[in-house]
Amino acid sequence: MPKALYLTTTLPYVNAEPHIGFALELVQADAVARAAHLRGQEIFFNTGTDEHGLKIKRTAEAAGLTPQAYVDQMAEKFRRLLPALGIWPEANFIRTTNPAHVTAAQEFWRRAAAAGDIYKKDYSLKYCVGCELEKTESELVDGHCPLHPKQEIELIAEENYFFRFSKYESPLLELYNSRPDLVLPESRLNEVKAFVGRGLQDFSISRSAAKQPWGIPVPDDPTQTMYVWFDALVNYVSAIGWGSDEEKFKNWWPVVQFAGKDNLRQQSAMWQAMLMSVCLPPSKQIIIHGFVTSGGQKMSKSLGNVIDPFALANDYGSEAVRYFLLRHVQPFEDTDVTPEKFKEAYNANLANGLGNLVSRVMKLASDHLPASPELQRGELAPAVVEERTLEDFKELNDHLTKFEFSRAMDEIWRHIGLHDAYIQETKPFSLIKTEPDKARQIIAKLVQGLADLAVCLEPFLPQTSATIKNLVKENKTPPQPLFPRK
RNA sequence: AGCGGGGUGGAGCAGUGGUAGCUCGCAAGGCUCAUAACCUUGAGGUCCUUGGUUCGAAUCCAAGCCCCGCUACCA
Known about the structure:
The protein is α/β, with parallel strands linked by helices. The protein has a domain at 338-474: Isoleucyl-tRNA Synthetase, Domain 1. The protein is built from 20 helices and 15 strands. The protein has helices at residues 20-38, 54-62, 67-84, 99-114, 169-178, 186-197, 228-233, 235-238, 246-252, 264-277, 309-316, 318-327, 339-368, 372-376, 382-385, 394-401, 405-426, 428-434, 436-457, 462-474; strands at residues 4-8, 42-49, 92-95, 118-128, 133-135, 153-163, 183-184, 203-204, 206-208, 217-218, 221-226, 255-260, 285-289, 292-293, 335-336. The longest helix is centred in the C-terminal third of the chain and has 30 residues, at 339-368. The two termini are 43 Å apart. The chain binds one RNA strand through helix 6, strand 8, helix 7, helix 10 and strand 15.
């Protein structure tokens, strides 16, 4: 097993508030990072914000701010999401406006250009006069802007730089065939294979600086600004020192990426082609998650069904949000989330399940077992001393290596149920009056069970895991319930 | 239209040839250590439809119906 593991999320575009879908991506990446760390790997966890482009400029203007002031404020919100979700504390937070990133993006451009992969060509923009916005083919309905169907779309010819994507058609297909686990799940790999197999067209990677000044200047051509795609993707290498600290870069590359299904093509085709262009090895793995829908529909402000991760964390705590996202959201498919479902899962499994079990076991233990130091000497129950690691729980590990978070947690909750049933069957609370020794052994066994659960929970609910370990160590009942019923 | 995924008790899902299972919800009983928590049992299913293969199909094959994703500049 390699010693170093580099993981990254995508960088969310900051033209909207952080939303629960991105929280899912962060939490998935975090669980993988923590599990790997427990296996002894060193972790570089990357996330951050994507801050350039025309949309940002427009959103900033609408808010009466300069682009820089606007992105500063938004980046702060995204940064605050990390502690709110209990994400890896040493996570690197990169902003595409960071000077180091700007330099790296320009260097990346130069190398791609040196490889002969960048050239100038006329690009015809589709422009809706009604919106005063550039439109893409997929935004149009019957060749018209859906908001202004009576107005003709204007074609504006502009000279842009293009990236020779077409050159990488066969290399990409070879990559997919030689590395069938590059993209997970398999259905997404097939999708991107089909996309590349249909034939690739070069894509534009710059815009006129006069119209779109908010971005990274193209090296040696001040009349052009890099298109955000090109700029933002480079963050995955700039974050670990590419172009400035080769030693560091070599230590961490290649990357394990987490991304949403809307990012499949950019991450697994375009970005991989860009890497080939500058002669870097491809990503190690790209894990594609589904979308979180709300009430059966895509979340939108106008529908009023947006689920705010901050509000959830505020009401239920970061551990509860992590729990829900990892266990009750399908890792690879779209999942519908509502406040009711969240509450139901919280009460059933955290309050009644895990939290209640900790309370009842630790009450028995603190009342009837000698204090922990004696326990650790093994006088009463040698089992309690046993220190286990995540690797002792094989099924759980198997699920985790396949990124099947909910199955891994199902396994944990199955054990919680077994503990509850065991208490019911053996009745240590009555037995203590008639056969105290036997009762104490049962209780000690339960305490060991809690300790084991804490080990299993560590990648998913790190704080809860630490709390349980501490209670076991101190032989104390929790002063407040771990998860109060809501 | 093409390619891909899917249709399983009220809800969400698992199950890929051999008596239909899990979680939540619902009902009854039990327990009292615990956060009115916990345990046991029960009710509830034409496993989309039709035809086929087979001793036997939710599971394989064929046709059909329905839902979803992808078919490039959506950060």
